[in-house]
Each structure stands twice: as structure tokens, then as C-alpha cells.
Amino acid sequence: MPPPGPRLPLLLLILLLLGAACSCGLTVTGAGEGGSCEFSVARGSELYSFDLAAPTPAHRHGVLSEDGFYKVAVNDSILWFQLCDEMLFNFDPPMCLNCEDCGGPLRCGTQCSALVSNNIGGYDVCTTIGGLSKSHISLVDEGNPRKGIIVKMFSSKCSISVSVICDSNAIQVPDKFVLSGLCDYATTLEHPSGCPRSVSASGSGWGWLSTLFITILCLLGGYILIGAVYRYYFLGIHSVEAIPNLEFWIGLPQRIKTVFVPATRSHVSYSRDGLGTDAPVYH
């Protein structure tokens, strides 16, 4: 008696692993604008990718301030902000009123990403102007992605725009800000993390053809998986034959070979020699 075929649970496990690999592949190919500090944009044949929070040899926290915040003071107003995270104050915390929506009076500034203090009637009054969950990234110059990006954060009524300008050699922290309207602030930070990584969209990396191939592969794997589960549990087929259309898949390599490698055969013709006999000629 021939040994029984492989049990289906092992095959199901292999198919599930294939499905997980396909999911990871689709995640990679579909990546565009990722987390709050990740951004990708294509220009021509180049794909430019930014990751402000990624560590570098010289800056282990990326664009994040190692103090836990950036601070800019202009006249009687003080602006605090942090990129890619909420602020953290181990020293010099904000001392202002109306800080309930950003940590409260005891932990003012620790539950938002941007805060401004203005002196009103002799009192420092705080206003939350940006949160980590409400942010948007765009290019500083649409025609030149290498110049840097703008991180804009929002609160219920206010906003802050931080232009992260590409400077691969040094950091220039903000020393001023601009107020437009009633509560929209803007400032500039020069940092190596504002410089993008670029790859050729047509050369390396994942193109549309690779994405299409992975999509088809995943759909095919899903078809085989669903069919195998149905035949295993509902038709009671507990061997490798539970895979739907098994004969087709077994013969597929030969079918492909037949299509792309046409069969060759010797062609024989006959010619008459000088003695009047017919001799076969192979060519």
C-alpha cells in the first residue's frame, strides 16, 4: 500500500504563511505617506522619502529635540513644540493659565505637540495649537523635493506649520515665528532629517508591475486556500488532493514549457544521387 499523502493541516500552514508574505509585500508596495513624520512623493522617475523620526549616526532621535521640546520666544509670546511626538518637560515647564487641554496646571505642555503662551492683561495665557494626531505633511517646494517638508499640526482653533529645511551638515534651531490670522503660527527648522532619500522609481524599488504580480499571486493563493478548506472540511478530502484542480497545478510546469519551448524535430527530405538512389538528407 502506498504511503498516505501529506495531511492538509501542514499544507494549510504553508498557504497561510504565503498569504502573510503577500500581505507584507502589498504593505511595502502600497506605502506612501506613513506615520505622522513619514512622507513619500514621486517626481518623474525619482521617489523621495522622508522619515523625520528615523535615527541617524549624528542624531539618534532624528528631528526630535533631545530636550523634549523646541522653544521660541518673541516679545511677550513663547512658543513650544515637538515634532513626531508629544512634548516632554524635565525642566523649564510652561507656567501659564488655561492649560487644561494640554496636561493641566500640574503637567502643562505634556499632552500636546505645540503650545503658545501670550501675555494678556499681565497674565500668561496658554493656547494649544497642535496635536500629534492632527498633522499634515507637504513639500516646502513642489518643484524641488530636496528642499524639505512642512509639518502642519492642528488644534481645535489654531495651527502651527514647521518648515523642516534640508541641511545635511548642521542644525539651525528656530529663533523666530510668524503669526498669521488669529492663531496660525509658522516657524523654520534646518535639520539633516529634512533631506530626503531618493531612489529611481523605474529602477530599484517596487514598480507597478511588481505590485500587479504580487496582487495576482495573493489572489491565487486565496483561491487555493479557500478551496482547500472547503474540500477538507465539507467534502472530507483529507489528503493533498484537497487542493482544488490539483491535476492542473501538477501539469502546469509542463504546459508552460510547451508554450515557451516549442518541440523540435528533425526534418527529413530525400535527394537523388548520381546512382539513382534516394538518400535521406537531415537538416
UniProtKB/TrEMBL annotation:
Q: Which UniProt keywords apply?
A: Membrane, Signal, Transmembrane, Transmembrane helix
Its cellular-component GO annotations read: Golgi membrane
Gene this protein is translated from = LOC100502280
Tell me where in or outside the cell this protein is found: Membrane
Signal sequence, start to end:
1-24
Name the InterPro entries for this protein: Autophagy-rel_prot_27
**Protein species of origin:** Zea mays (Maize)
The membrane spanning regions, by residue number, are 206-230
Lineage, highest ranks first = Eukaryota, Viridiplantae, Streptophyta, Embryophyta, Tracheophyta
Q: What's its membrane topology? A: Single-pass membrane protein
The protein, known as: Autophagy-related protein 27
Pfam families to which the protein is assigned, alphabetical: ATG27
